């Protein structure tokens, strides 16, 4: 066993040495340095030695607000950032991090009378994130995340909107809101946060009204501030970040008062939740109350100058994809609202919306789900049927449900309601709206406008209804399954 480990070690060492040799000689182009998403120009370009990127420390760390000092007598560079200092000695594999000895594999060195330091070691020790893209030869350094302080928690009332707000002194990067039963409550966790409000002492606002009996708060753990809204009624708030991303708003609606706070600026209006009979008649489940505050962005594909794919009969255009997409999306919006969902449409008329504008709208509204309604096309008239696209992505993990789960449920229900060929739920990370949205997202391709039989169906009265009903059922079933998890 030991022998095998030793041999494996030697093999790995040989590979590392070979890589080192390759990079030392094959290193024609200098890597690009990116700091917090921006390309950083250094007076002397970074170099690669023994597979490690070295660069002059000054520009990088001073750009982050740190200091870099050089001691010529001791041949030492000391980099300080926040509470941490890293001391590197030229040609020594021993470094001091806050006075403690650490070993590094490639030492700092002098090239053309400039001090070059191993960026990965130094930046990581200073709390930065360092990423290396070998294909594009890009070193990405992200500054250490500073904890934000929660400075204010309060409630306000405007018209029929009751708002609970948490304010911080910095950009809130990470937060999660879940509604829970027994007892009914809304829990807000802000990670990377310290509670400054109330002197950091846990407590409650002691405010009660028609919706909740108290708002409690505490430093839940080292890194997390938690607020809990104790509910008197089963209502999930609509949750979003302020424009500057320093505040979290949770808006509750006080029913029985004239609607005033509700936004209908997009012209789609707000449809009141339907009665049980109406939903039963449509075969539509009611959305679980814990999912009702989560914003669903509905995106009718194409529009305005972009007509999408075209449907032809006898050589003339009989249907534009943008038209049928809008018809479907408007009906889907109605059905979801009737079932209790909170929605927003990227367009409600025949208007142009940029491809990258669509995910931006959803991200800007802190939406929980993005649904893009499209129809398919092919150069051949043969392909037919329905498919749903999703992308597996890191950013969706905090939502309690995945793009894949939504896509599969929608595929099932569309197959049932439309009865076309099942082409399946497909992982398609290449699509911009799937890739650029931070929340679970799907693209539905209802039918093929290029297929004569599909086209005939698309031009019938039942098509938009069947499409919208199937999509709504699929979305609601998947969200209900995820409620409370
Ligand atoms: Zn399309």
General description of the model:
With 485 residues, the protein is of the alpha+beta class. It folds into 3 domains: 25-142, Copper amine oxidase-like, N-terminal domain (Copper Amine Oxidase, Chain A, domain 1); 148-253, Immunoglobulin-like (Sandwich); 276-482, Aminopeptidase (3-Layer(aba) Sandwich). The strands form 7 sheets. It has a 6-stranded mixed sheet with strand order 27-24-28-31-29-30, with helices on both faces. Strands 5-6-7-8-9 form a 5-stranded antiparallel sheet. The longest helix is centred in the N-terminal third of the chain and has 24 residues, at 2-25. The protein is flat, with a radius of gyration of 28 Å. Bound molecules: zinc ion. Zinc ion is lined by residues 301-302, 308, 321, 374.
Describe this structure in a few short sentences:
The protein is built from ten helices and 31 strands. The chain has a six-stranded mixed beta sheet with strand order 27-24-28-31-29-30, sandwiched between helices. The chain has a five-stranded antiparallel beta sheet with strand order 5-6-7-8-9.
Biggest sheet overview:
6 strands, mixed
List all distinct small molecules, including ions and cofactors, that are bound in this structure: zinc ion
The figure for the number of domains is 3
Number of helices: 10
Poorly predicted segments: 11-27, 259-268
Mean pLDDT: 88
- The CATH class assignment of the largest domain is Alpha Beta
Bin the strand percentage: 25-35%
* Strand arrangement, major sheet: 27-24-28-31-29-30
Class by SSE composition = alpha+beta
Query: Whole-number radius of gyration?
Result: 28 Å
C-alpha geometry: flat
At the third CATH level, what is the topology name of the largest domain? Aminopeptidase
Q: Approximately how much helix is present in the residues?
A: 10-25%
Quaternary structure classification: single chain
CATH architectural name of the largest domain: 3-Layer(aba) Sandwich
Q: Let me know the number of strands.
A: 31
Relevant CATH superfamily of the largest domain: Zn-dependent exopeptidases
């Amino acid at each position: 066993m030991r022998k095998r480990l030793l041999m494996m070690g030697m093999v790995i060492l040989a590979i590392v040495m070979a890589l080192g040799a390759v990079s030392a000689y094959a290193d024609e182009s200098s890597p690009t340095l990116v700091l917090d998403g921006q390309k950083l120009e250094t007076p002397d370009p970074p170099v690669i030695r023994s597979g490690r990127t070295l660069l002059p420390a000054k520009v990088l760390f001073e750009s982050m607000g740190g200091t870099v000092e050089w001691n010529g007598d001791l041949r030492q560079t000391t980099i300080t950032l926040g509470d941490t200092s890293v001391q590197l000695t030229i040609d020594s594999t021993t470094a001091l991090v806050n006075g403690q000895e650490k070993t590094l594999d490639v030492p700092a060195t002098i090239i053309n009378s400039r001090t070059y330091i191993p960026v990965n070691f130094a930046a990581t020790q200073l709390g930065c994130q360092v990423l290396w893209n070998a294909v594009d030869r890009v070193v990405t350094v992200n500054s250490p995340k500073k904890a934000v302080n929660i400075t204010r928690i309060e409630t306000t009332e405007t018209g029929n909107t009751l708002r609970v707000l948490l304010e911080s002194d910095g950009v809130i990067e990470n937060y999660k809101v879940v509604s829970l039963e027994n007892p009914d409550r809304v829990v807000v966790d802000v990670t990377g946060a310290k509670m400054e409000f109330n002197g950091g002492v846990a407590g409650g606002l002691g405010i009660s009204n028609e919706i909740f009996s108290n708002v409690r708060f505490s430093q839940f753990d080292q890194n997390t501030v938690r607020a809990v809204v104790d509910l008197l009624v089963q209502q999930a708030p609509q949750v979003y970040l302020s424009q500057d991303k320093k505040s979290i708003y949770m808006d509750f609606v006080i029913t029985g008062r004239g609607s005033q706070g509700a936004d209908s600026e997009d012209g789609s209006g707000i449809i009141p939740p339907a009665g049980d009979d109406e939903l039963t008649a449509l075969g539509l489940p009611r959305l679980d109350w814990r999912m009702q505050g989560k914003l669903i962005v509905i995106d009718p594909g194409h529009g305005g100058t972009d007509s999408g794919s075209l449907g032809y009969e006898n050589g003339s255009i009989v249907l534009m994809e943008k038209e049928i997409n809008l018809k479907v999306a408007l009906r889907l919006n109605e059905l979801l609202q009737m079932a209790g969902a909170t929605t927003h449409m990227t367009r409600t008329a025949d208007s142009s919306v940029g491809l990258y504008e669509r995910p931006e709208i959803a991200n800007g509204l802190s939406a929980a789900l993005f649904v893009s309604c499209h129809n398919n096309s092919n150069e051949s008239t043969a392909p037919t049927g329905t498919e749903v696209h999703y992308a597996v992505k890191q950013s969706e993990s905090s939502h309690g449900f995945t793009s894949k789960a939504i896509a599969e449920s929608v595929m099932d229900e569309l197959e049932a309601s439309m009865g076309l060929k099942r082409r399946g739920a497909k992982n398609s990370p290449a699509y911009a709206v799937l890739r650029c949205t931070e929340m679970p997202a799907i693209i539905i391709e209802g039918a093929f406008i290029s297929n004569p039989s599909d086209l005939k169906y698309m031009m019938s009265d039942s098509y938009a209804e069947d499409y919208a009903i199937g999509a709504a059922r699929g979305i609601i079933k998947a969200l209900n399954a995820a409620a409370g998890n």
